[in-house]
Amino acid sequence: MSTEQQQAMPETSKPHFYFEAFEDRRPPPPLPHSPLIESLWQFFVVMALAFGARYIWWRWTGSLNMEALWLAIPLALAETLSYIGLVLFAVNLWSTRDPPMQPPPYGINECVEQPLEQDRPVAVDVFITTYNEEEELVRLSIRDAKAMRYPHPIDLRIHVLDDGRRPLMRQVAQEEGVHYITRDNNIGFKAGNLRNAMEHTSGDFIVICDADTRLFPTYLEHTLGYFRDPHIAWVQTPQWFYDIPQGRPLPDWLARHLGTPGRWIGRAVERLVGPVPVGRDPFANDPKMFYDVILRRRNPANAAFCCGAASIHRREAVMQAALRAYGSSVEQQVGKLSKGIREADIKRDFEEAVRGQIAVETEFTPYKFHVSEDIYTSIVLHNDPDQRWKSVLHPQVESKMLSPQDLLAWATQRFKYAGGTLDIALRDNPLFKGRMSLRQRLMYLSTFWSYFGGLWNLVFLLAPIVTLFTGISPLRAFSMEFYLHFLPFVILNELAFMFGTWGIAAWEGKASYLSFFSINLRALWTVLKGEKIKFPVTPKSRQEGNFLHMVWPQIAIVALTVLGLVVAGLRVFVFGATQELPVLIVISVWSVYNIAAMLPMIRAALWKPEDDPSQPDDARGQPAAPVHGF
Fold first, then answer.
1. Residue 356, exposed/middle/buried by CB under 10 A (0-12, 13-18, 19+)?
2. Which of 132, 295, 329, 608 is most buried by its number of CB atoms within 10 A?
3. Dihedral, CA atoms, 340, 343, 346, 350, nearest 10 degrees?
């Protein structure tokens, strides 16, 4: 909370939140674009893909253990599917081309194709969605939205969209002088909440915020300029979690446990490898890799999708796409009902008779009623058959928000992302319909493909365990031929992504992707069973206790891998199976990698904020009042 905000509140009513200790943090700037680094990335990734294709071809034609095809074929298939993901990822990351920022428009005529006879100020509605979050947390978001500046006259209206129907929330909105919008049901959850608000507002542009989205004063003056292009439908800004734990320097952490010798050891290590923060971002919440690398590099393909909070939308685009989708849905239902009628006249009369009733019964949904309404709505707009709507990922952070504070909140959020995306991919896949360009389709395919990764990642985790326990190799032999095919691919791939993600610590992303396998598999199974992915509330306060029960799959992988290494080591070095030594060497390296990838998630289950006597209790991860995210 800013000093001005604190001073504006009576001393007795000032709430204490854990994140107050982090209010002075500032977001990192966007990654600088370097043509040299980009050229090196493109060179090495082309080489990696070429050698990767060579390796995959060899795996299928010259390396399978024909005596154990039950193990050899699943592993080769997993490698092939993973290679396809690598190709899609390379297409996604190919180049950075940021659309140039434009000066903020003076009036609405600078944002439309058909100017009005009399120009007027741009009208902006700010939607702050809330359900059961702490009212004083929402107050902070309201005040930051009110503090936005703009160099020209502007019609700015802030609305609290309360699906919790709370009298206290209404009171806060009244005290802050903003509009309060609610409804008598929760149909469609967040998407339904947004639709209801659209029916009660009329702004040219809509800023979508979650309850904890704290907009910066520069938000509008940095984003509205993009809408000078009348085909821009929405602008997404990066989400930045300002409460992510920064970790404790390694010398301090070691000193706490080992005293002065520990501090000396820590300093020696940091002289060799640089700063080593212990406990930084335990849940891999930092979204910089996603926004500053993955989504930002979709700008050249016009494929940056909306991620909900901190985005701004052109109302006309949302409404036009929704109307077309509504009309299409009505006609599809009419067609299904009249499918069996052969007589043309009877069929036409029947369709005219039922069309009106179906139109009344069909939901009109500007934002899709779906757990992933943001990406779903993006797909609808990018697929619009009559209008080539465009999107922008604005690279600069323009707001701050809160991150999950424990593994339960983290897993809830990740399951929603995975389940929602897989549900779209399997039930309403946009890749084979609409008018998206090939590059757009590849970008969306990359997103869908990544969530199927739990299938092949499970194979990568289980295959070495099977080999360690049985001594059966999935390859005919780990000979020099294997190294000549495998090592060039791996080395070139690592070099490529070192340059492709230059400025980002990539290991956390790799480890997280592998350790997500259980969440992705559970989400996939839920979708395949036909169950609807729910709209879970993501807690923003740290829950009590540890969460080891949530990471039993990761613990099982580590335990089985360690036990397998012991069994294989005994078989080779004690019982004389020396012919297995080449296999054991490769599998051991593979196994250590898998264990290292599982450990961060296991540590996250046990993580607790560092106790700091200089901080109030609320700054140690325990807010005075429960805070929840929509």
1. exposed
2. 295
3. 20
